[in-house]
Amino acid sequence: MLIEKKLDELGIILPSKAVVGALYVPVKQTGNLLFISGQVPMKDGIPVFTGKIGHERSISYGQDAAVLCIINILGAVKEYLGDLDQVKEVVKLQGFVNSETGFDKQHVVINAASQLLHDIFGESGRHARTALGTNQLPMDVSVEIEAIFEVRKGV
């Protein structure tokens, strides 16, 4: 339970159940890879961070949204695996930022997500990544992140 201990040290409380709002599963495993569906910044089923990043919402607002997306990703993975220590490494993130026209700092917003994964998993948390701007996200949320994790053999 090393990862759980690290989450406690960081003051992170994972959601107990992934919120699914359509016809998909939060986590799909093939071989040793987990494909984690896009998670948005929701808490208790309610969008917490909404609006476009740029003039309407600040970069730090977007970064807070990205952190909550990662917390929700980890909650979905824990629900699926039962134990986050089964995660071998974070392979890839794809982050979408609800952006105003002209905003070009999506990579800075998604850095907060990357940093949190590194803080939790160490070098195993370093990953490939894509950070994209979009003109709209579901429920007008500010950020959505999907991920690919590798799990230990036999999981």
The fraction of residues in strands falls at 25-35%
CATH architecture tag: 2-Layer Sandwich
**Fourth-level CATH superfamily:** RutC-like
**Silhouette:** globular
Counting H and I runs of at least 4 residues, what is the number of helices?
A: 3
Which residue ranges are poorly predicted, with pLDDT under 50 across at least 5 consecutive positions?
A: none
Nearest-integer average pLDDT: 95
SSE ordering = HEEEEHEHEE
How is the CATH topology named? Answer: 60s Ribosomal Protein L30, Chain: A
How many structural units, i.e. domains? 1
Pfam family, one: YjgF_endoribonc
Organism: Fusibacter ferrireducens
Protein name: RidA family protein
Explain this structure.
By secondary structure, the chain is α+β, with helices and mostly antiparallel strands. It has one domain: 60s Ribosomal Protein L30, Chain: A, CATH 3.30.1330. Helices cover 30% and strands 28% of the residues. The chain is built from three helices and seven strands. It has helices at residues 2-9, 59-81, 106-121, and strands spanning 27-30, 33-39, 42-43, 46-47, 87-98, 128-134, 143-151. A five-stranded mixed sheet has the order 1-2-7-5-6. The chain is globular and about 45 Å long. The chain starts with a helix and ends with a strand. The model has no long low-confidence stretch (mean pLDDT 95).
